[in-house]
Every structure is written in C-alpha cells, then in structure tokens.
Amino acid sequence: MPEVVIPIGPHHPALKEPVNFRIIADGEKIVRLELDLSYNHRGVEKAAEQRDFIRVLPLLERVCGICSHSHATAFAKGIEEIMQIGIPPRARYIRTIIAELERMHSHLLWLGVAAHLIGFDTLFMWTWRDREAVQDTLEEMSGNRVHYNINEIGGVRCDLTPSQVNAALARLPLLEERVNTYVDMVNSEETLLIRFRGVGRLSKEEALRYGTVGPTARASGIDYDTRKDDPYLAYSEAPWNVVTDSNGDVFGRTRVRVRELQESLKIVRFCLENLPEGPIRVPAPKNAPKGEILSRYEAPRGELAHFIRTNGTDRVERIDIRTPTLANWTSVAMCLVNRNIADIPVIVAAIDPCLSCTSRITLVDNQTQKAGVIGFDELIRRYRSRNPEEV
Amino acid sequence: MSVLREMFENLLSRPITILYPKEKVPIPAAFRGRIAIADDKCIGCSKCSLVCPAQVITMVDGPRNVEFRGKNLARKKRPQVKLYKCIRCGLCERHCPAGAITLKHELSGSGTDREVVVT
Amino acid sequence: MTDPVSGLIYVFIFPGFLFLFIYALFLAFLDRKIAARMQQRVGPPFFQPFADFIKVLGKEVIDPAGVDRVVFDAAPLVALAAVMTAFLYVPVTGNSPLAFQGDLVVVLYLLSLPTLVLFLLGWLSRNIFSAIGGIRAVTQLFIYEVPFFLALLTPALMAGTWSVSEIVLWQQKNLWFVFLQPIGFIVALVGLQAKLERRPFDIPEAETEIVAGPWTELTGRRLAVMDLTIDLSLVVGSALVAALFLGGPLIPWAIAPAWLEGIIGFLLFLIKTLAVLLILSSIKVATGRIRIDQLNDIGWKYIAGASIVQVGIVLVMNYLWVYA
Predict the structure, then answer these.
(1) Helix, strand, or coil here: A119?
(2) Using a CB-CB distance cutoff of 8 angstroms, which residues of chain C are in contact with residue B16?
(3) Are the C-beta atoms of A169 and A177 separated by less than 8 Å?
(4) Which of A211, A345, B1, C112 is 20 to 30 A from A352 in CA distance terms?
(5) B104: domain range?
C-alpha cells in the first residue's frame, strides 16, 4: 500500500480528549506523524489573573478533573511560600492524604483505560470497581468525588473527623489486597505482556533528552520524583520509596504505576494513623507581597510546575502552568515512528495524557484570523525584544 | 491464571451493581449538594457573594432583625443564589460568619419556572 | 428425500430458519450475560439482542459519497444467506434430511463467505479505517483458515466420509472425537473464535484503533443484517463443532420411541452448543486483543503446527486401524 494519511483525532474512540495526530502510514507501519494539541484551550491562565486568592483556587482546580488537587495544592503552596506563612502540620497531613488518594484513583483509572485500549475489558471493569473504594473515601472526606476543594491559602477548608479516618482505614486492607493482585497480574498476564512488552521503548538518554517526567521517565530508569527531590507536605515524614524500572517501554510504565499504587497506600496509611492534632489553618493576609516563584508538585502524571508572579495585590499578575503531559508529548511523537498502527493507542495511553491540562498555548492572530503555536526561537526573540537590558 | 479463577468466582456470585433507584447509595455527611440559606441566621454581610468563584450570589433587599453573637442586628440585604449556576464548591459555607448558608444533601432540583431554581 | 411439506417445515420453521433466528438471539444474550457476570456486572435482559436488532433495523441508512449503493445493500444479505444455508446441513435433532456426501466442505465454504463480504464492504466504503479493517479481516482469514479446515477435516478422515450427518453416526457407534482427537478439538475452538472475530482475535473490528474497521460505514438495516449474520455464525459454528467433536444430537444407545429419541437428541444439541458457547465466552472475557503481526506469528507457528500434527496422528491411527 502506498503512504496514506490516517487521521487519529480530533474525534476518535481511542482518545478521551481531542488531540490531532495525522499519521502517515505505509501499510501497518507508521512513517511519521504530525501532532496538533490545543483543542481544549479554555483561557484558564488569563481568567486566573482576575480572581483573588480565595476565588482562584476552585478555578485552578478545574484545569483537570483527575489531577484537580495537584493544581490547587501547587498554587496554594506557591502563594504560601511568597507570603511566607507556614501551614499547621494537621493541614499538611490532610493535604497529603487527599493527594495520595488522588494518585491512587488516577493510577487505577489509567490501568483500566490502558486495558480497555488493548481490548481487555475485564481488567477495565475490575480496576474501576476497585477505584470506587477510593472515590467513596474521597467523597466522605471532602464532599465530592472529583474537585475536592480541600485547599485554602493557609491550610485546608474542612477537618477530618475520627469516624472519617476510621472509615478510610477500614477500606485500606481490601484495596491493598486488590492492588497486590494487579501487581501479579501485570507481571504474569499473557495479553498484557504481549501487547505492552517492547512497545514504545525509550532509553534513559532519550528520555532525558526529550524532557519526559513522571512515571514515563521513571520507567526508563531516571530516579526523579519531586516528592523526594524537592519535598513538600508530609512526604519527608512518611516512609515510602521512589519506584523506578529499567524496561523503558509501556510494560515498564505499567509496572511503575502499579507499584506506585502500593507506595501510595503506605503513605495514606501512615498519614491516617499519625494524623497530628491541632488547627487546620492559619489566617492568611489578603495581599501577597511582590515576588516570583516556581512551585513544583508531583502530580499523578509527573512533575507539575506553576510559575506565579505577584505584585502586591490580592491577585496574581501572571500564572503559567507547565503540566507533565505537555512535557511528555515529544516522547510520544518519537516513540510512534516505525511502530504498528495497533500500537498508537497503547503508546499514547502510556504517558497517561490529560489534554485538559496540556492546552495552555495557542496564538490567535486577529488580523489574519488564524490560530497556531509559537516556536521556541520566536519565543526567545519576543522575550529579547521586550527586555533589551537583559540581552 | 488468577484472572480465570476470579472470572469463575464472579460468575457464581452476585454482581456489585447498585440497582438505583431501587437501592440507594449512602450519602456521606460532607456531601456538597444544594445550597440552603437560613434566613433567621443571615446577617447580610455579603461575604458569601464576595467569595463565590462562579459569582452566582447577589445581594437583594431583605430587611430583618437577626441575633448574632449576643447582639441584635438590623439586616438590610440577604443573598439570592442562582442554583442553576452554582458549582457547589462550598466556599460560601466555609466563609459565612453566622453559619447561615449550608450545603444540603439533595442535589439542585430542576424545574421549568425560574422561581424554582433561584432561592 | 422426504415429502415436500415436512421438508419445507424442516427448512423454514424447525429446525430451520425460524429456530435458528430465535436460538441465535438467545445465544447472543447468553454470551453477553455470561461475560457481564464474570466481570461482576448485571448484564442485559433476555430480550436485548432482539430489541437491538429491531432498533437498528429502523435507523437511518447513510450512504457515504461515491459508494455503490446496490452492492452495499446486497453484500450483507449475501452473507446472511450463506450462513443460513450452512445451518441446514448441521444435524439438530437427528440426521439432516438434506445431507449428501461432501456437505462438510460446502458448510466450511459457506462459513467463510461473511469474512469475504466484510473485506468487500471495507474496500467499498472509501474510508481509510474500513480499508485497513478489511485488509486485516482477510489477513486473519488466511492465517486461521488452514488450521481450522484441517482440524475439522480430521474427523472426516477418521470416519471415512465427507458428510456431517454420517460423521455424527460414526461417533454414535464408536467414540466421540473429542477423546480421539483432543488437539484437533482445541484447534477447532481457537479457529472458531478467530472466524467469529471475537477476542482475542477481534482485530478487524478493533474499536480503539480503527474506529470500527469494515463496519464503520454500515448503518441501519445493513448493520442489523451483518450483526445478525455474526450471531447466526456463532450458532452454526458451535453446532458444527458440537456435531463433529462432541457427538452431535445422537446418544451412544438407541431409545425405543422415535419421537422421544428426537426430543432427547434436541436437548443434547442444546446442551452441547451451550457448552461450546461457555468455552468461547470464557476465552473472550479472559483475554485482550492481539496485534495482526502477533497473530501471524502464533497462527503459523503454533496453531497450524498443531493441526498438522493432528492430521499426522490421524493418518497413523487409520493405518493401524486397518491393519489391526
């Protein structure tokens, strides 16, 4: 067959969110691909400049449904550092519990979706059934299954009662047993092995060169986890390990995520059992002093970076969100060349793409009525033209 | 072969589906549902209107004498909520000094008349 | 040949087309229910496949631009006709009155027609996803058809006849072929799963990769007819495997009244096809999809190898039988 263009997206059953891959394929082999993001751009960064610190947190939470707590906590932690207030230990522990529960629900969701994409619907049904236990716990603690709104500048919004803590602890043993089953299943189930092994291999040098983060990078042997390298919340107190794998392919990424589930369970158990007493918030000033900060957080998909610039008012002057999915897209484009069409959904799903998080940039030209993206050289050129004294 | 064993165990046991609406899901205490305003507690300070991220609370006329922290206050305004736009974040409940605005367990009802969905 | 009235009843009512239609919808329901219960879900009610059929029949038929409408309408009907005809030669309550020497070959040929129709539809649809799906369907046909045919011909080799009804009679006098040729039974089941394009072999219809493959542009009554064809092939395929390996509707000893023998035969037919369905559903639930190049690997190395080994064993056994 001569080369054909196969449009994967923007609408396609394999994708949960719109993204456009135009695959140039020769038979079943992919020759090259053209990637187009930004179908989910909503203008969150601009909208955040118009809301004060109390009202902006629910907005930032809604950047993404699955990693909602990550965005809110990264922002709250950044602003608290600019304001130089320390939150009480109970608030730190509560934030950590919700963060790890969110990581668990995200990884269980991912496992189900990855299984569904290779047609293994049974594992999809089972992992989502077990995810319900995590969602029930989150609903008991915060009032909602996603978008928990547990953060405030200065602490957390609501407290954990002893009955909530006990109910959560009662659910943990069953979850531990199920997660151990999934660890075994991933290592021994024939269908998963045959579809995931050898697919989308990234060596350590390639992973570093393309800027991958999160479980994608850790599966290639890079020992980088923001929770250990730049600790925040209660991660330096809870006993847990960074999970790496040396396989570097989709199989390695699956193993990393499933073992991260086990580590998350350990952290949640530690935090629930050792929840310190005390207040859950400190009073925060209305305005933030002038400053710039880069707040990093380990979202379920990798390292999330919020760049925040404040100017003495009660709003941010500029917020820039660099999500982990944005960092991982290059590796997808590189991995897909010379693979089969049947591997496209597998490789795309292996970075756990969250396109609502990704679409941060688009350039709209009013005069020519066109939209597009800015290249790196153009970006440097614009910066230099605006800041001549720094050149 | 744990998959096979679990498959056949599941075949012989009950499904875990909750057959709504015959069986109901238990609603936790912290559930954030529809907004309810207790008129006898509200002091009309407008704090809920100021913190709402979706800007769905507007202050309308509602004079009333209210007891607050041992003093008698003459309230001038009271909040009106566009229930159909509320995102149920719970910030109004968190910041109300009088505890007058709370999130109940029911979800916002639907209706064809605007009066039903604006308290 | 029997008299024309009972012949017509056999062909159209029982155990002909009407029974086939009802039983196919019932087996489709059972397949979905078993799969659902294994996943701890509730599953559809018993009338679901029938309701789906009626609903899809009433939907709007959309013709993509530039597509040959006549062939697009006729091709699913050809597939349906092929599968319905194949069922007439499979014994249901006793011997099929239409049996003749060589009807095994006719049945196998008719059962491969739906796959060729799928390829045709994929090619005609002027849609890249359908074209890829059609090519995958034909590739899969080449890979599994050789071992499947060989596995179904080994009972004929041992029984010394080319008619399905006579193979069933041979099993009634001797032993069921599932005990004499277990490798052939396993290869036949795997081949049947691949023919019906169910997991792990549902590569042509891989929803998450190529939308719906050759089924993408089928809508309305065309989709209803193709769906029905696949459901009917499930019945015909399981009945064929049950007849060739599990002894069909005949029991090893004779029972006095002929009508009682017929009823017991029919019940045995139901039980045996349900057993085959249970095995096929379990395979479907326990696995995910494999890639077409991996199927190529597994098909030619292991499945074709096993079927050739089985043929070799049967030839040796025949030789020893003659000389013993």
Answers:
(1) coil
(2) 40
(3) no
(4) B1
(5) 26-117
Task: Confirm whether B3 is domain-assigned.
Answer: no
> Which of C32, C38, C199, C285 is the best substitution to test chain B (most B C-beta atoms within 10 A)?
C38
Spatial separation of the C-alpha atoms in residues B74 and C274, rounded to whole Å:
79
With respect to residue B7, please indicate whether it lies within any of the assigned structural domains. Answer: no
DSSP for C186-253, written as a single string: HHHHHHHHHHTT-TTS-GGG-HHHHTTGGGTT--HHHHHHHHHHHHHHHHHHHHHHHHHHS-TT--SS
B88 burial type by CB count under 10 A (0-12 exposed, 13-18 middle, 19+ buried): buried
What's the number of domains chain B is made of? 1
Residue of A nearest to C289 (CA): A119
How many C-alpha atoms does A59 have within 13 Å on its Cβ side?
A: 21
Eight-class DSSP state of C41: -
From its phi and psi, is residue B59 left (phi > 0), alpha (psi between -120 and 50) or beta? beta
In a domain, B60, yes or no: yes
* Cα C101 from Cα A127, distance rounded (Å): 53
Between CA A228 and CA A168 the distance in angstroms is: 25
Sign of CA dihedral C69, C71, C74, C79: negative
What pTM did the predictor assign?
A: 0.90
A328-387, pLDDT tens digit by residue? 888 888 888 888 877 888 888 888 888 777 766 555 566 666 656 666 677 677 777 777
- Amino acid type, A357: C
Give A170's contacts (C-beta < 8 A, 6+ positions apart): none
C-alpha distances in angstroms, A317 versus A29, A314, A320, A385? 48, 9, 10, 21
Asked if B98 and B43 touch (Cβ cutoff 8 Å), the reply is: yes
Residues on chain B touching C43 (C-beta within 8 angstroms): 15
Predicted ipTM? 0.87
- Name every residue whose Cβ is closer than 8 Å to that of residue A132 and which is 6 or more positions away in sequence: none
Catalogue all structural domains in chain A, each as residue range(s) with its CATH number: 48-358 (1.10.645.10)
Q: Is B63 helix (H, G, I), strand (E, B) or coil?
A: strand
> Cα separation of C219 and A235, whole Å?
55
A191 touches chain C (CB under 8 A): yes
In a 13 Å sphere around the CA of C160, the CA atoms on its Cβ side amount to 6
Q: Quick one: pLDDT band at residue B108, thresholds 50, 70, 90?
A: low
Contacts of C204 in chain A (CB under 8 A): none
How far does B33 lie from chain C, in Å, by closest CA? 29
Asked if residues A338 and A24 have their Cβ atoms less than 8 Å apart, the reply is no
Chain C positions contacting chain B at CB under 8 Å are 34, 36-43, 282, 285-286
CATH of the domain at B67: 3.30.70.3270
Show the CA angle centred on residue B46, arms to residues B40 and B49, nearest 5°: 110
B40 falls within a domain: yes
